[in-house]
């Protein structure tokens, strides 16, 4: 069932819209292709396709259902006799809307609605490789995921093993560097002070540094 | 009939008017015969002959409508 439309009706009201769209469907079945605004084209599509579905069923009851909306026997005959066999193989999608451009008078976006009367292209050729690809792609994807999973723990382990070493090495090196730096600092003032002061004064700053 | 209580200042009027901006439209960039062409997406194009006369509307290699 076509989805009910939201918003205001086309034309002057609900009855006007029904008549308008039915007449557009009539013109579509006569001319096979009509140019309207995009809005009307989109509203027309479900109605026209529903009528085509009735035509494909082809019995008297469905013909009377169509006659309720298209009150033109010749057009209904055309629909049931000429159009229905052409779309017999098609499972829905009997119309095609192509956006054209903008109308000169009011800049309204225009579109062409046409019946798709071409023989159904065998899309199975496209579907089968896709399925095969999907089947092939799925194990590949799984394999890739597995590989990735297999690789990541190794890397993590490597990182973990590398990290503690670095941590162990860094503190070991740091105190040595600090110690050497303090020694150098301690030696430098000592060398300067040595000629001026006694050995006792030299020991005092050294002891202070040690206490620090 | 409702009437504004106070006169709207020149500043407020101009501040409102300055908010009216044009938004950039979405275009599709394609290269045809060495020329870069910008066109609207999902819209039939006009096919012209060498002298610039309009021939027909075309979409995805299918003739859609007369010019």
If you had to describe this structure to a student in words, what would you say it looks like?
The complex is a heterodimer of chains A (212) and B (67). Chain A is mostly helical. Chain A is built from 6 helices and 3 strands; from the N terminus they run αβαααββαα. Chain A has helices spanning 14-31, 38-57, 60-69, 73-86, 124-193, 199-211, and strands at residues 33-37, 95-102, 109-115. Chain A has a 3-stranded antiparallel β-sheet. In chain A, a hairpin with a 6-residue loop joins strand 2 and strand 3. The longest helix of chain A has 70 residues, at 124-193. Residues 157-210 of chain A have low confidence and may be disordered. With 67 residues, chain B is mostly beta strands. Chain B has 1 helix and 5 strands. Chain B has one helix spanning 10-17, and strands at 28-32, 35-39, 45-48, 54-59, 62-66. In chain B, strands 3-4-5 form a 3-stranded antiparallel β-sheet, with no helix packed on it. A two-stranded antiparallel sheet of chain B has the order 1-2. In chain B, a hairpin with a 2-residue loop joins strand 4 and strand 5. At the A-B interface, strand 2 of A face loops of B.
């Amino acid at each position: 069932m076509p989805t009910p439309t939201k918003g205001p009706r086309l034309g002057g009201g609900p009855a006007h819209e029904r008549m308008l769209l039915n007449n557009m469907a009539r013109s579509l079945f006569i001319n096979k292709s009509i140019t309207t605004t995009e809005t009307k084209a989109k509203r027309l599509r479900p109605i026209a396709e529903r009528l085509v579905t009735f035509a494909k069923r082809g019995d008297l009851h469905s013909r009377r259902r169509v006659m309720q909306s298209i009150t033109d026997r010749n057009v209904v005959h055309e629909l049931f006799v000429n159009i229905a066999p052409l779309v017999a193989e098609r499972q829905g999608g009997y119309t095609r809307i192509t956006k054209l451009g903008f109308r000169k008078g009011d800049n309204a976006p225009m579109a062409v609605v046409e019946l798709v009367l071409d023989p159904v292209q065998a899309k199975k050729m496209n579907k089968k490789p896709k399925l095969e690809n999907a089947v092939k792609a799925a194990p590949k994807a799984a394999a890739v995921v597995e590989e990735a999973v297999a690789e990541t723990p190794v890397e993590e382990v490597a990182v973990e093993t590398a990290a503690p070493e670095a941590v162990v090495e860094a503190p070991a090196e740091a105190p040595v560097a600090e110690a050497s730096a303090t020694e150098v600092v301690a030696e430098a003032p000592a060398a300067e002070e040595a000629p001026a002061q006694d050995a006792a004064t030299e020991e005092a700053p050294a002891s202070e540094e040690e206490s620090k | 009939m409702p009437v504004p209580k106070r006169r709207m200042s020149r500043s407020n009027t101009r501040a409102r008017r300055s908010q009216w901006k044009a938004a950039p439209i979405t275009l599709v960039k394609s290269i045809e015969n060495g020329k870069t062409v910008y066109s609207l997406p999902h819209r039939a194009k006009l096919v012209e002959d060498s002298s610039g006369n309009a021939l027909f509307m075309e979409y995805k290699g299918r003739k859609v409508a007369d010019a």
